[in-house]
Design a protein that fits this description.
single chain; SH3 type barrels; 6-stranded antiparallel sheet; 31% helix
Length: 208
Amino acid sequence: MKKKETTISFLEQFLPQGTFEEVAPFFQTHTIYLTLTHERKSVLGDYRNPTKADPYHRISINATLNPYSFLITLLHELAHLLTYIHFGHRVNPHGKEWKTQFRHILIPFLGKRYFPGDVEKALYAYIHNPAASTCTDPQLYKSLYKYDKHEPGRKLVDDIAINSKFQTEDGQLWLKIEKLRTRTRCKNLTNNKMYLFQGIVEVREITE
């Protein structure tokens, strides 16, 4: 995995306009070793506490994230930093202590037009009970997904029309049958069996 250490000034280009000044004080107050990576798909960010070998806070962020996802992920990891400072290893990584720190960090960024309206609306709902990852909150994930760069034909299952076909990463072909309350019923066109998909799974739409 290739990582690139970045200076605080370099960070500005990855953030939404106007937010760098809000983020900078965290790096002035704490000794943070920040790295950016372009090769992680399933991990958005990571925090490591200081050790004897590495006596500083370490944060890693996926540099391919869109600016809004990047900021949310950075704040997520900074909340881990503050939780560690206050509680060490005595609390759960995403327990109530972390949730409280994350809310305190995120709230000052809301209501200032840093985020698009749909993302901010989803954040207001998400902040009541923030999860370990934005990927576990469908509304927030879908609002952020709109601002990612996608290959032609790539869509979320929720955005595929009923009775339309799509292809998953493993090459299998599917037919979208029915939208349920939290899942989508799809038919595997190889074995004709029905399966349930999460709506935020990214697939390739098949157009004929």
